[in-house]
């Protein structure tokens, strides 16, 4: 209906938008794709930009506020506005690099730091085939003070600690089930700082694809470390070159979440829709949705999913550590060939 979807012509003379406030994002998108994401790739900078959205947004605590202590502003850009403070918090190790890479881009555009962080994560994710189109809003208020330490989950935290923290930050919305939905992001992820001897260790064998291999591979029995052993927050993985976080391992096996975890295996629509839903809410933590403009239309629709769910070469159902008591683990073909290593990102 043309009357209901009237569009405005943007000052750039090329684009139109449903709201003039979205017009500026076309140039930001182009800058990100050309100058941060290597022409639109799902590589390290895209992964790190997605991670940054979480570490900015999750730093908000109504529980601290109830004690009269400042609890952080959520998705308010504080992590990049006060980087010398927040990137020294232990769970934020390594994020100083992507903040530094994003800095000149933010400076070139008329956009709040808070909006930029979430938008960069949405554009980065859109470069990963099979990803959902993530929400993009503008109008967030930037932080005037840093978040306090202690609000970002660590891979050595117990499921209880992680569930409690996410419930606090979301005012009860993110329960253990929605925590599983959030962890879909680890399908396009790698660790640089968990093992000090190696960087770019992926969490699944397809870190450039938004698929469900992460949920399958985390359910396989761990047999070795990809680098050095004994790192805090790391447990053994099933494949050479692959990193498994202790938190992913325990949440995949916790009786509250194991069946939800398994339900994502080979369910591509679920891996898209559930993450799309939780990202929308996470990306505006601490902000008033009524003062934001929805510019999701500027986020490209990602390419279709690629590949098919499979057991990595050399592995099969026999290597699954069944954790869901209700439903047997589904069967998939095993990739041909000898057991191979996952390449670093
Ligand atoms: Fe994450 C990565 C943890 C959640 C996204 N992680 C990561 C790591 C870790 C983690 C440790 C590695 C780092 C380095 O570099 O070393 N997480 C975690 C935890 C949690 C999480 C504990 C809670 C449970 N994530 C999350 C979420 C999201 C994410 C929610 C979304 C948003 N991550 C991520 C990404 C990544 C990560 C994307 C990748 C990055 C790169 O690659 O660089
Ligand atoms: Ca993947």
Explain this structure.
With 345 residues, the chain is mainly α. The chain is built from 13 helices and 8 strands. The chain has helices at residues 24-35, 44-57, 62-66, 78-81, 83-86, 95-108, 113-126, 159-169, 176-182, 213-217, 246-253, 258-263, 268-282; strands at 8-9, 16-17, 137-138, 190-191, 201-202, 234-235, 244-245, 293-294. The strands form 4 sheets. A two-stranded antiparallel ribbon has the order 1-2. It has a two-stranded antiparallel sheet with strand order 3-8. The protein has a two-stranded antiparallel ribbon with strand order 4-5. Strand 6 (234-235) and strand 7 (244-245) form a beta hairpin. Helix 1 crosses helix 7 and helix 2 crosses helix 7 (113-126). The radius of gyration is 20 Å and the shape is globular. The mean pLDDT is 97. Heme B/C binds at residues 44, 47-48, 50-51, 53-54, 94, 153-155, 162, 182-183, 185-186, 188-194, 233, 245, 247, 345. Heme B/C (HEB) is lined by residues 44, 47-48, 50-51, 53-54, 94, 153-155, 162, 182-183, 185-186, 188-194, 233, 245, 247, 345.
Q: Which residue ranges are poorly predicted, with pLDDT under 50 across at least 5 consecutive positions?
A: none
- Rounded to an integer in angstroms, the radius of gyration calculated over CA atoms is 20 Å
Mean pLDDT: 97
Distance between the termini: 45 Å
Strand fraction: under 5%
For the biggest sheet, the summary is: 2 strands, antiparallel
Structural class of the helix and strand makeup?
Answer: mainly alpha
Molecules bound to protein? heme B/C, calcium ion
The overall strand count is 8
Strand order of the largest sheet: 1-2
Number of helices: 13
Shape category: globular
The amount of helix comes to: 25-40%
């Amino acid at each position: 209906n043309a009357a209901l979807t009237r569009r405005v012509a943007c000052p750039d003379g090329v684009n139109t938008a449903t709201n003039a406030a979205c017009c500026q994002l076309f140039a930001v998108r182009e800058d990100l794709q050309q100058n941060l994401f290597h022409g639109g790739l799902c590589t390290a900078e895209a992964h790190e930009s997605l991670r940054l959205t979480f570490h900015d947004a999750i730093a908000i605590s109504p529980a601290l506020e109830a004690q009269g202590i400042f609890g952080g502003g959520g998705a308010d850009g504080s992590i990049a506005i006060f980087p010398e403070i927040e990137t020294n918090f232990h769970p934020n190790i390594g994020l100083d690099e992507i903040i530094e890479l994003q800095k000149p881009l933010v400076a070139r555009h008329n956009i709040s730091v808070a909006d930029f962080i979430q938008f960069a994560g949405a554009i980065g994710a859109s470069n990963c085939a099979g990803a959902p189109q993530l929400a993009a809003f503008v109008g967030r208020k930037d932080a005037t003070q840093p978040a306090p330490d202690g609000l970002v989950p660590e891979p050595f935290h117990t499921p209880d600690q992680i569930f409690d923290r996410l419930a606090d930050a979301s005012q009860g919305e993110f329960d253990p089930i929605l925590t599983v939905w959030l962890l879909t992001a680890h399908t396009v992820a790698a660790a640089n700082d968990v093992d000090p001897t190696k960087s770019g260790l992926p969490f699944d064998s397809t870190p450039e694809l938004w698929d469900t291999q992460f949920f399958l591979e985390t359910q396989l029995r761990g047999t070795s470390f990809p680098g050095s052993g004994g790192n805090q927050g790391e447990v053994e993985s099933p494949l050479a070159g692959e990193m498994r976080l202790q938190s992913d391992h325990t949440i995949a096996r916790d009786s509250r979440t194991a069946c939800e975890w398994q339900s994502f295996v080979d369910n591509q629509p679920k891996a898209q829709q559930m993450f799309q839903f939780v990202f929308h809410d996470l990306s505006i933590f601490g902000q008033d949705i009524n003062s934001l403009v929805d510019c999701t239309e500027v986020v490209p629709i990602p390419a279709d999913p690629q590949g098919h769910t499979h057991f990595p070469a050399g592995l099969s159902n026999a290597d699954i550590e069944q954790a869901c008591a209700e439903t047997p683990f589904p069967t998939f073909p095993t990739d041909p060939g000898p057991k191979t290593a996952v390449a670093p990102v």
